[in-house]
């Protein structure tokens, strides 16, 4: 008796509720609404305001096409510009002297990359790779060697990188330090 009354008391409100179906997909022809307060500054000319209003009415696809057309029209490339830091000299002569004072930083960490292997020495290279990478079994080492070029070790010291390079070149592999 108690169970059936509990089921009815829970089921009744669920049946009587009305659910409103909301479409999560916007039509491609509907313009994206602009939030209030994020519009054009008050100092913009009427011409600029009308252009911004027309762009705001475009769909995402049309906006993408507009951007591509503007890039083509004004020969704009997508190159990243590097901005100098606050401590950089601003004068032309001082800017020319700054790089001369700096010594090139010597690289301390290297990537050891297996470029290619000699087919006749493949078995020896596989065994050496298996010895260099502790968690690798023979099958994984074979797949690793066959998928060259591949990074063997990352962020190793210069001495260790040279040691690995010498060992692999001794068994017929081409190794590059990056």
What key phrases describe this protein's structure?
single chain; mainly alpha; 3 strands
Distance between the termini: 78 Å
Enumerate how many helices there are, as a single number: 7
Rounded to an integer, what's the Rg over CA atoms? 33 Å
Q: How many strands appear in the DSSP assignment?
A: 3
Poorly predicted residue ranges = 14-26
Sketch the major β-sheet. 3 strands, antiparallel
Main β-sheet, spatial strand arrangement: 2-1-3
Shape: elongated
Give a short summary of the structure.
The chain is mainly alpha-helical. It is built from seven helices and three strands, in the order ααααβααβαβ. Strands 2-1-3 form a three-stranded antiparallel β-sheet, with helices on one face.
Describe the structure.
- By secondary structure, the chain is mostly helical.
- 47% of the residues lie in helices and 11% in strands.
- The protein is built from 7 helices and 3 strands; from the N terminus they run ααααβααβαβ.
- It has a 3-stranded antiparallel sheet, covered by helices on one side.
- α5 packs across α6.
- The longest helix has 15 residues.
- It is elongated.
- The relative contact order is 0.10.
- About 7% of the residues have low confidence.
Summarize the helices and strands and which ones pair or pack.
Blueprint lengths: L1 H15 L29 H11 L3 H14 L18 H10 L8 E8 L4 H11 L5 H9 L3 E7 L1 H13 L2 E5 L1
Antiparallel strand pairs: 1-2, 1-3
Helix pairs in contact: 5-6
